[in-house]
Amino acid sequence: MIAGGAMKGKKTPQDWEKNIKLLQTYPSEVPGMENDLFRVLALSYDNLSKANVKSCFIYCSMFPEDREISYKQLIELWIGEGFLDECHHIHDARARGEEIIEQLKLACLLESGQSEKHVKMHDVIRDMALWLACENGEKKNKCVIKEHGRWIEGHEIAEWKETQRMSLWDNSIEDSTEPPDFRNLETLLASGESMKSFPSQFFTHMSVIRVLDLSNSELMVLPAEIGNLKTLHYLNLSKTEIESLPMKLKNLTKLRCLILDDMEKLETIPSQLISSLSSLQLFSLYASIGWDRDWGFLLEELACLKHVSDISILLRSVLHTQKSVDSHKLGRSIRRLSLRDCTGMTTMELSPYLQILQIWRCFDLADVKINLGRGQEFSKLSEVEIIRCPKLLHLTCLAFAPNLLSLRVEYCESMQEVITEDEEIGISEVEQCSDAFSVLTTLSLSYLSNLRSICGGALSFPSLREITVKHCPRLRKLTFDSNTNCLRKIEGEQHWWDGLDWEDQTIKQKLTQYFVPK
């Protein structure tokens, strides 16, 4: 109705085309949008329970149009902004952040993304949020969003003195003779391949900034003046081209979150830099792809920090891996652990606090286990990836991971069963498997030349959505039963699928529609 009203009085094709373009790109500029549509939509916003929930909602408009935002990234930004300060522990803040996301989804202010644990904001909702962020459109420069690879000229920057939050997505910035005045700037998100450098002294006048995200850019050198941003709570340099961190960052004594994931060219972190960040709660130096550095030397500095309780780290030596296990502080704090090339490590005992585990090229590893004497299970563990561990016999410990969502195993030639009977802990095969993989959504098994079964007993896989099986010639049975109802994709070779043995042909008939030959 409002869109129709916007077209009222438009007689020529050119008028219609102009207004259609406005509706698609700048709906707030269309007559009637602010007074009618936005005010109706704002009722959902007004009904949100708390002021910090409203702040969390408006913050989502800082991302580019149609961008899917991960829960993890969004919640960590909210932590940096102080929106979740009601929580005294970072893990409570993460849980509260997820609650807020679900609340916003129920209010139809956010939508589920295509990817798991991602959300997106409808274009009209986003425009309304920006309208609210700019005080019902009265202060246009309070929140500045620039995207789509623009060239930002110096005269534009000069107009942003009052800006509180700024997003520069995949932009380039013109150099200027005078450092810009950003005395009110609290948030700067500057990301994208076009962002290769910043003008000289660009960060000089940012006296109240809390959040600085330079991730996914081609930045090669971190500007030295960032070390003077003493109000900074959050710094993200992930997936940049930076080779070293300046020692001057030790001045960031209010920093809560430091995120350095997938910085493939990072070579140097000065000694005593990390231990100087006395307010640090979250430290992430994780690699989802190749990285030939061992950052285990940072463990001692991290263990000295009073507030740190959320660590993600890449380790490449048995010594450092053992240190992470032996230290009570580190054992409770390491949430994401990536082990690479730990030659000589035959057994890995996991902390029950782990959430994500990645093990690559540990050629001597034969057993991964948890110390059940602690009376705990892997209640936190949600993702496991094991690649090129040829001596690994099984992953029976995962029978005690009730919240495992994703499992990927590749090139583990000695493995015959993923979960097998373990006489040492005295639990029968059937008992072990009864609740195993009950919430698993993704399972990938590749190049396991001796794998004969996933588990000796039948598993229902009630939550499994996608399974991939490649080059597992001895896996002749899929232990699915009639309760496997969520499965929507089975990927594998045609000859493997045709040769499977089925105890119940009705299950095969039910699942054939989801098979995708590879």
UniProtKB/TrEMBL annotation:
Domain Disease resistance protein winged helix, chain residue ranges per copy: 62-129
InterPro entries assigned: LRR_dom_sf, LRR_R13L4/SHOC2-like, Plant_NBS-LRR, WH-like_DNA-bd_sf, WHD_DRP
Keyword tags: Leucine-rich repeat, Plant defense, Repeat
One GO BP: defense response
Any Pfam family hit: WHD_DRP
Domain Disease resistance R13L4/SHOC-2-like LRR: 197-481
The keyword Repeat appears for this protein: yes
PANTHER family noted in UniProt: DISEASE RESISTANCE PROTEIN RPS5, NB-ARC DOMAIN-CONTAINING PROTEIN-RELATED
Record protein name field: Uncharacterized protein
Source organism of this protein record: Vitis rotundifolia
Organism taxonomic ancestry: Eukaryota, Viridiplantae, Streptophyta, Embryophyta, Tracheophyta
